[in-house]
UniProtKB/TrEMBL annotation:
Keywords: Hydrolase, Metal-binding, Zinc. Its EC number is 3.5.4.28, 3.5.4.31. Its cofactor is Zn(2+). Pfam families: Amidohydro_1. This is 5-methylthioadenosine/S-adenosylhomocysteine deaminase. It catalyses: S-methyl-5'-thioadenosine + H2O + H(+) = S-methyl-5'-thioinosine + NH4(+); S-adenosyl-L-homocysteine + H2O + H(+) = S-inosyl-L-homocysteine + NH4(+). Substrate binds at residues 92, 144, 182, 212, 297. It comes from Tissierella creatinophila DSM 6911. Residues 55-401 form the Amidohydrolase-related domain. PANTHER family: AMIDOHYDROLASE-RELATED DOMAIN-CONTAINING PROTEIN, AMINOHYDROLASE SSNA-RELATED. The gene is mtaD. Catalyzes the deamination of 5-methylthioadenosine and S-adenosyl-L-homocysteine into 5-methylthioinosine and S-inosyl-L-homocysteine, respectively. Is also able to deaminate adenosine. Binds 1 zinc ion per subunit.
Length: 429
């Protein structure tokens, strides 16, 4: 379908904080084919009026656990260790594939409705997440989270291989598959090496939790005499493209390792605040040229998947922590949520900014809301005033998946009903 968006303001993101005012954008065969004045005779299947709207790249949630929306508001006000071991892991042991399918659909509906077009998920029953992705029309990286099981060390590695064979580059290349050892505290060094070897065999990336809490770092020094980042670096992990969720408690030496090895840290501000884990030294990493992106983590530690909230928090928290208003400026936070996310997912040539030739993943924001007047500065509006429910239209891979806030691919009423039903059932298992 050829789509023409007329008279629209655009934040392209790849041109610092430059804004294109009242221009036109033309989409052909799923890609942005022209921005600016257009010939009269172009073929248009669908015209969108861009007046009073703002167009920007779709947001990229670089670290999440989609199935965890089933456990939203289920275990709160706890630290990570208690939360995982006392509440989450016992409940996750009871989840089945159908639960994950409906939980992931719920998450995808919420993400589309708040402007996210791509994600990187780490969970289990990932075939079901693939099925949900196919129905929703989203773009995503699927990673089977692996907690080592010494009794059956090969099972989850084989699941990852199967997942890769079935889904990698499928659905018009909207799906990628990576290898996901959960964390250095749930995988032995020997097993981590096996996951690294698998990523090399499949020629794909790694997705892992690293240095999330002070306890994790202290335990790592006790066990291995080094930080989690130095530990996995010494094992050879960073020879593969690595997405490292959290990186909260990191030293200057750790930051240098991340920089020298082109590691992609993901900042999850809401989850880190809520689990009382701390806050990552984001501005220090950005200053070194590290492409820090943003994620929500799961809906059980956040407790929502609205990336505009993460973008806002990233900018605000870092200013307060550094006592420096320019710590993470508005446009940097937007870049973290878009282009840097594309780098993390290995998709920077295809998505993450509004450029001719890139795939048409974009969102239109309704700027005719009271909290968005007056319009002094559109970049500031996105960082400090917009929230996810201001997103009006979402386009992924050139397909309109939401228009005027109406979802085109998903039946949200059915999804809400099914998740409610499955959650009640889960509590009685
Ligand atoms: C084995 S699939 C992924 C695994 O990760 C757990 N998880 C969710 N949030 C976090 C977090 O912030 N740190 C570490 N682990 C987390 C999730 O519950 C799954 O068990
Ligand atoms: Zn996580």
């Amino acid at each position: 379908m050829n789509i023409l968006i007329k008279d629209i303001d655009i934040i392209p993101v790849n041109r610092k904080d430059e804004i294109l005012k009242s221009t036109n954008l033309y989409i052909q065969k799923g890609r942005i084919s022209h921005i600016g004045n257009l010939r009269e005779d172009i073929k248009v299947d669908k015209k969108i009026d861009g007046k009073n709207k703002l167009l920007m790249p779709g947001l990229i949630n670089s670290h999440t656990h989609l199935g965890m929306s089933l456990l939203r508001n289920f275990a709160d006000d706890m630290n990570l260790t208690d939360w995982l071991t006392k509440k989450i892991w016992p409940m996750e042991a009871k989840l089945n594939g159908e639960d994950i399918y409906w939980g992931s659909l719920l998450s995808m509906g919420e993400m589309i409705m708040t402007g996210t077009t791509s994600f990187c998920d780490m969970y289990f029953f990932m075939d079901e997440v693939g099925r949900a992705l196919e129905n929703s029309g989203m773009r995503g990286v699927l990673t089977r989270g692996i907690i080592e099981d010494p009794k059956n060390p090969k099972e989850k590695l084989n699941e990852t291989k199967e997942l890769y064979k079935k889904w990698n580059n499928s659905l018009n290349e909207k799906v990628k598959v990576m290898v996901a050892p959960h964390a250095p505290y749930t995988c032995s060094p020997e097993f981590l090496i096996k996951t690294i070897e698998l990523s090399e065999e499949l020629n794909t990336g790694i997705h892992i939790h690293l240095s999330e809490t002070k306890k994790e770092v202290e335990d790592s020094f006790k066990l291995y005499g080094k930080s989690p980042i130095k530990h996995v670096y010494d094992l050879g992990m960073f020879n593969s493209h690595t997405i490292a969720a959290h990186c909260v408690h990191i030293s200057d030496e750790d930051i240098d390792i991340l920089m020298e090895n082109n590691v992609y840290p993901v900042n999850n501000p809401a989850s880190n605040l809520k689990l009382a884990s701390g806050f990552a030294p984001v501005s220090k990493m950005l200053k070194k040229g590290i492409k820090v992106s943003l994620g929500t983590d799961g809906a059980s530690s956040n407790n929502n998947l609205d990336m505009f909230k993460e973008l806002n928090l990233a900018s605000l928290v870092n200013k307060a922590v550094d006592l420096e208003p320019l710590s993470v400026p508005a446009i940097k936070a937007i870049e973290m949520a878009t282009l840097n996310g594309a780098f993390a997912l290995g998709l920077e040539k295809e998505v993450g900014s509004i450029e001719v030739g890139k795939k048409a993943d974009m969102i239109l924001i309704d700027m005719d809301k009271p909290h968005l007047y007056p319009k002094h500065n559109l970049v500031s509006a996105i960082s400090y005033s917009v929230n996810g429910t201001d997103v009006d239209t979402v386009i992924i891979d050139g397909n309109i998946v939401m228009e005027n806030r109406e979802l085109k691919t998903l039946d949200m009423e059915k999804i809400k009903y099914m998740t409610e039903k499955r959650t009640k059932d889960l509590l009685n298992r």
